[in-house]
Design goal:
Elements lengths: L24 H26 L13 H8 L7 E3 L5 H6 L4 H9 L22 E2 L9 H15 L5 E6 L6 H13 L3 E7 L2 E2 L2 E2 L20 E5 L3 H16 L5 E6 L18 H8 L3 H11 L7 H21 L19 H17 L12
Parallel strand pairs: 1-2, 1-3, 3-4, 4-8, 7-8
Antiparallel strand pairs: 5-6
Helix pairs in contact: 1-2, 1-9, 1-10, 2-7, 4-10, 5-6
The structure holds thiamine diphosphate and magnesium ion.
């Protein structure tokens, strides 16, 4: 078997063969700034985690073009079912870094009220950014269910679900793909083949020739794209979105990219990622590739990089400062949002918990005897 040749648009020198990106100059620069903001967010979160200010983060370095290229193919009325490594999808559509920082701190302004892990964002506005699932692959059937509802209601909407190469070994992948194929629902499956599932290399994940080929078994097209080429990802995802909107059903896209950082802040990738392999992929850095494209179009000069990165970093740092200044969610909130009317036994248990917490001390101060 030969590997499917990935679709690519931007040549190594930044030129394209007359490709129309379907974005204005301002749109192209917005995509670029979004990638820089993802990098700044990564850098800040790594420092915050190392300083003990936040508990956890997920590096996105290397995946930015896949995130931003795919997000750019969606309308804000569409739905995103992201993985935990998709910061750029939210930022591209206008989620403010501070909204994401509230989640990193699990503070009172976090949309999940501190009930999710850090990095497990969810937003209703400016785009439906579905709450991220920690268990791998469980969100694929959710996306298919949402897309089925869109179809039944006759809505002009599409769901895009993003997951990793490791995610293809989950039950959710197979049941989601199967039902999407049978029901022909408007969903786009975006497999980010970033080389690793924590320390498990992609070649140990599957015996098939890449991931796009798995589409065949479920009766849908499978496409492989260069995931470090923002315009190629945008093109391939746009085509899949158009098919979905036209009632032609789902598509599986495999974006070939590389995780240039660790799996998470708990990980040391130097223990298992060969240095030569990382160096090879650093040569294909998706941000540098897009810079060469912008430069070839007269939209970017090398001296712009530091200035624009500094602007992004200043915004992210201000966001971290603001989020750190917001207190934790009220203890009372742990009993809300499940029942419209809280049953009497839960009200009693809640009250007992609050009374105990008042007697024993305040967990937020870090020195109390909070028992939970
Ligand atoms: C069902 C399940 N099994 C195992 C884990 C532990 N786990 C967390 S992330 C991860 C790797 C997933 O790799 P991949 O899907 O390639 O995504 P990536 O992290 O590379 O973006 C694993 C095994 C989990 N969260 N859920
Ligand atoms: Mg992976």
């Amino acid at each position: 078997m030969t590997a499917t040749q990935p679709v690519s648009v931007i040549e190594p020198d930044g030129t394209t063969q007359g490709h129309d990106p379907g974005l204005s100059d301002e749109g192209l620069l917005h995509a670029y700034r979004t990638m820089l903001t993802v990098r700044a967010f990564d850098d800040t979160c790594m420092k915050l985690q190392r300083a003990g200010r936040i508990g956890f983060s997920i590096p996105n370095k290397g995946i930015e073009a896949t995130q931003v290229g795919a997000a750019s193919a969606l309308r804000r009325t569409d739905w995103l079912f992201p993985s935990y490594r998709d910061f750029g999808m939210a930022l591209y559509h206008g989620v403010e870094p501070v909204e994401m920082m509230h989640n990193m701190y699990g503070n009172a302004r976090d949309t999940s009220k501190g009930r999710q892990m850090p990095v497990h964002f969810s937003f209703l506005d400016p785009i439906h950014f579905y709450s991220i699932s920690s268990p791998i692959g469980t969100h694929l059937p959710h996306a298919v269910g949402a897309a089925y509802a869109m179809k039944v209601r006759g809505e002009d909407k599409v769901a895009l679900v993003s997951f990793g190469d490791g995610g293809t070994s989950s039950l959710g992948f197979h049941s989601g793909m199967n039902f999407a194929g049978v029901w022909k629902v408007p969903v786009v499956f975006l497999c980010q083949n970033n080389g690793w599932a924590i320390s498990c290399p992609s070649e140990a994940q599957t015996a098939s020739d890449g991931y796009a080929v798995k589409a065949m078994a479920y009766g849908m097209p499978g496409v492989t794209v260069d995931g470090n080429d923002l315009l190629a990802v945008r093109q391939v995802v746009s085509e899949a979105v158009e098919r979905a909107r036209a009632g032609e059903g789902p598509t599986l896209i495999e974006a070939r990219t590389f995780r240039m950082g660790g799996h998470s802040t708990s990980d040391d990738p130097t223990r298992y990622v060969p240095a030569e392999l990382l160096a090879e992929w650093e040569e294909r850095d998706p941000v540098a590739r897009f810079e060469r494209y912008l430069e070839a179009r007269g939209l970017w000069k090398p001296e712009d990089r530091d200035r624009l990165y500094a602007e992004a970093a200043a915004k992210v740092n201000a966001a971290a400062k603001e989020a750190e200044g917001v207190g934790p969610p009220a203890l009372e909130s742990i009993f809300t949002d499940v029942y419209a009317d809280v049953p009497a036994h839960l009200r009693r248990q809640g009250q007992a918990t609050f009374d105990l917490a008042r007697r024993k001390g305040d967990a937020a101060a870090g020195d109390g005897e909070f028992p939970l």
